[in-house]
Automatic annotation (TrEMBL):
InterPro entries on file: 6-blade_b-propeller_TolB-like, PQQ_b-propeller_rpt, PQQ_rpt_dom, Quinoprotein_ADH-like_sf, WD40/YVTN_repeat-like_dom_sf
Pyrrolo-quinoline quinone repeat domain residues: 71-218
Gene3D superfamilies reported in the protein's UniProt record: TolB, C-terminal domain (2.120.10.30), YVTN repeat-like/Quinoprotein amine dehydrogenase (2.130.10.10)
Name the record gives this protein: Pyrrolo-quinoline quinone repeat domain-containing protein
SUPFAM superfamilies: Quinoprotein alcohol dehydrogenase-like (SSF50998)
Amino acid sequence: MSDLWLHGLGQTSMGDPGVIPIEGLTPIIASDEIKGLGLPFAYRSLGTLSNRKGVNHYHNGKVYVLHGLGVTIYDATTGEVIADNTHTTSSAHMTPDLAATDGSYYLAQGTTLYKYASDGALIWKAENVGSSYCIAVETSGVYVGVSASSAYYIKKCNRTNGQVTWTSTSLSSNIAALAVNSNTVIAADQSYKIYRLNPSNGSTVYTYTIPNNRYAYALAIEPGTNHFYSIDSYHVIRKHSYQTGEPIFEKTSANTTTVYNLFIDSENNIYTVSNREITKLDNQLAGFIWREDHNISGNPIYGFGLDKEQGKIYVLRQHSARILSTDKEWSDFIPHQFEGVVNSIDVDVNGNFYGASDDWTARKFNALGEQQWVYRHNLALNFVKADKNGNVYIADTNRTLKKLNPYGVEQWSCSISGTTGAVTDLVVNSEGVIIVSIAYFHTSGSKDYLVKISPEGTLLKTMEIGTSGVFRKLHLWDDRTVMAFNKLYDIDTLRTIRYFSAARAIFGRHGDFLFGVYDDEIRVFNKYSGGQIHSFEVSDINITNFYLRAVQGLDGAVYAWDNDKTLIKFNEKGEKFWRYKAVEKIADIKVDDEHNIYLATGYYIEKLTQTFGIKGYDKN
């Protein structure tokens, strides 16, 4: 028979060819198949757009998102994907058909205007309308700002067939923004001008020049009045008269950076959105009703849509979306996504799993991927760990450790002073005493710390234990001792009681053996003597300015990953089973009792399910 590894049955020695199957035991490692993406909540990135104008729209209970891969339509109540349509969207502009309820939408890309059904089927296309810069729609037609033959126009097209109804006279330069209703068309170009056009024929009613050589990035028409708004490249918002275009009110510093979207709610309050801030102002621009600065590195705000009736703002980020009420209360929109990079994950004995993220949240999901709760902090979180009782420990970038109960309610907070780096692991003994590892990795000098905290959250002792830069994992050797890096420490005193001099960073313990990382190698040691048994290399990986990381399953299998997207599985002898390429860079991995693999990869948690079977098993 071929080598066969059985759950719950170790090898007699690391050199033995295998073990004889015992009736009733199930072989768990004999297949090289792995499934992923594993669950629907592991959803792909929306992709990147260089132009954020009009990338997000709400209409008739749906949210339309234009992104780097196409157009995705979401149910505004549940966040479920209604349609995920692939289009060429480089430099594209999109709007739903606001005069229809069938879910159709318009996409202007290159010199062509398209109308699509909600499932992405093409309804019509109008070619050679000109290179598009912006798009707007109302009951009588679709309006596109275009350029052609070094001239710049607004074109009105028929909603039913795409035929051009009229073309304006040439404007001065590229059209930067459009706002339309049944009574008027407002356009802004990059020559600092605002135009009012006649909606019947496109003739110019008047032109207003914005002061100080600035042009409007966004426009909005105030319903039921004779006013419209503009905001320029220096964040000055103005309320204009329909009749002349002259400003009635204006306010400087309406946002912290460039604004691409303006919206007006049912009470005629005005909203601005940039890549980092959303503001709400009254319609006389007398002051802010509120400001929301929610700048998340790597996940900027790309736009939003407004549901006037429900008072909800749908906020799109590069990798996620959320709902912000007009009263500034956040809630989830697209389920099971984080707004920042997921730095740490964990899974408990009941199959619940947890994530801690740069978006300042820790989140709990059940085994089906349904979100159970969200804990919001005031700093990025880079560690999460669940204990056997369902309590959850989280830590932020300032090494503040918090204990949450199984419902996500904070129990205590402990600031770990006198340390540098990030919390990497945590163990709790039967008395509730907490031991924490902290590591600071830097090419010019690294530091490792061991920290003891009382069950009530009081910092008892902090001790620097080395400068490895690879200190990632703690193991309760028994209820009185803990293994950190390559030493055993007495929990009462944190005194070293045993030293495994040949080992480096121990990450796993299985049967009679310890498993550690050394550069691009996995080394195996005798648990009792500390002597090295053997090692194996993890090849074809990227550990530049990094170090190999690894975890171990209950069956002894080793899962190693690199500084990029590669995950490799080995058995205890170093025989490779498979390689897996994640969607984004891998930050953390956990393996549950059922051998499912959880990956923190970019802004998502992936769950991978392994398919186990018997390979080459023959009875002699």
